[in-house]
Design goal:
The structure is a single chain. The protein is an alpha/beta fold. Helices cover about 30% and strands about 25% of the residues. The longest helix is centred in the middle third of the chain and has 19 residues. The chain binds pyridoxal-5'-phosphate. The site of pyridoxal-5'-phosphate has 18 residues, from helix 10.
Length: about 425
């Protein structure tokens, strides 16, 4: 049996606070930390763009209203990934002009978005043509695939020839022809090449995106997407956003020297803003083993239904067993679903492998905290598999108060739409 020596990273929650969460809200329960959310937003807001800057929150990472309003109050704008997210952003108080729609799915509400002033980011030639027909003579953003991608796994890579996201860079002339046909002004050129991106590849894609900008005269804003890597595990590196920002600043200045345009910069992180500010408080419900040559498993009441990323692409999350004076053991953590893929500790990047962790040997009833769960956990959960209800969400305020953001789903709500 091979094992990781990592014992995770104690997240922002103390054992006392986690106990309180269980008493008040039950487990599993998501908890978000206001101070960490604000700190991440302030760091990103300091991005050193020389000719204007907009920070968009990629709300797909976590669309909870409590988080949206916090970022709205700090002056962030939104990148929405569906018509539905546009509505959630509006409901959270963002103005239409603060919202950009970047969607794989051709919008079914284009005319409405245009009338309200939502920024539409055309992600394919078909989308651009549909936009031109809905709003001839108006301005638009265009998402390009600059020819390069990078993600923490292949499944989070959204650039290069293996990716269906954005318009392939060699098709720029077709983009211009469609825009001309509908008298569209392409004001923003956008690229987003993946999640958990290698910063050096990100910088390369920035250069390639600026090369595309140089070929469209009306572009005034370059949106460089998100993808800033966050190390959830102690051994995983995090991007230095100030260092990346300095590189972008130099490229924007150099672009001005050779082209004359002073470009506004936008970035749209999701992970960077929320990943480390979330945790799931869970309970160990059972402990089983498969003999001397097998594994020791701790079953939690949280799993793929709350934190799907490990079973989806072998993502690593810190896991802390809140127990003292226990001997350590190598433990595989699993969720409660009747699904052998419901694993919380797969091999890094390999959802089919088991990677036990050294932790205090869990017992039923122990509190267990899964860290790094602010991004793509509540929003990506496989809710209602095995009919488990969607878990509640709570904000840990700066004075230590626990403020409920969402209740646990009820059985009636699970059944509500059945006819
Ligand atoms: C268009 C777009 N922008 C921004 C993001 C945010 O990426 P990340 O959470 O890695 O910052 C995504 C995520 O996939 C995306 O698809």
């Amino acid at each position: 049996m091979s094992s990781s020596q990592s014992r995770g990273r104690t997240p922002f929650l103390s054992a006392e606070q986690a106990t309180l969460v269980r008493e008040r809200f039950g487990t599993p329960c998501y908890v978000y930390d206001r101070a960490l959310l604000e700190a991440a937003a302030r760091q990103a807001l300091a991005f050193p763009a020389p000719y204007g800057f907009t920070l968009r929150y990629a709300m797909k990472a976590n669309p909870s209203r409590g988080i949206l309003t916090l970022f709205r109050d700090l002056g962030l704008h939104i990148d929405a990934s569906s018509d539905w997210e546009v509505e959630r952003a509006l409901a959270a108080g963002f103005t239409p002009g603060q919202i950009q729609l970047t969607s794989q799915m051709p919008s079914r509400r284009l005319a409405e978005h245009v009338a309200r002033g939502v920024v539409v980011n055309a992600c394919s030639l078909l989308q651009l043509d549909a936009f031109g027909r809905a709003a001839p003579g108006s301005t638009v953003a265009v998402r390009m695939n600059p020819g390069l991608g990078s993600g923490s796994t292949k499944r989070t890579n959204t650039g290069g020839p293996s990716s269906s996201f954005g318009i392939w860079h060699e098709r720029l002339d077709e983009v211009k022809a469609i825009a001309d046909r509908h008298r569209l002004t392409i004001r923003t050129l956008h690229s987003h090449i993946g999640s958990g991106t290698d910063p050096e590849v990100w910088k390369g894609a920035t250069r390639m995106t600026l090369d595309l900008v140089s070929r469209i005269a009306d572009v005034a804003t370059v949106n460089l997407g998100g993808g800033f890597k966050v190390g959830r595990m102690p051994e995983e590196p995090s991007v230095d956003i100030a260092e990346v920002g300095a590189h972008v600043r130099d490229q924007i200045e150099a672009f001005r020297q050779r082209d004359g345009r002073a470009l506004r910069v936008e970035i749209e992180p999701g992970t960077y803003l929320v990943a480390q500010a979330g945790a799931v408080v869970a309970t160990c419900v059972d402990v089983v083993d498969t003999g001397r040559d097998g594994y020791l498993f701790a079953k939690l009441d949280a799993g793929m239904t709350e934190v799907t990323r490990p079973s989806l692409y072998g993502a690593q999350h810190p896991i802390d067993v809140l127990a003292t004076e226990r001997e350590a053991a190598e433990v595989v953590f699993v969720g409660p679903c009747c699904e052998s893929g419901d694993i919380l500790t797969p091999g890094p990047g390999d959802p089919e492998a088991l990677a036990p962790r050294w932790v205090p040997r869990p017992q039923p009833g122990d509190l267990v905290v899964i860290g790094g769960a602010g991004a793509y956990c509540a929003s990506m959960s496989t809710i209602n598999y095995n009919s488990y209800p969607q878990s509640p969400e709570v904000m840990l305020e700066t004075d230590g108060a626990l403020r409920p953001l969402r209740r646990r789903q009820s059985l009636d709500q699970i059944l509500a739409n059945e006819v």
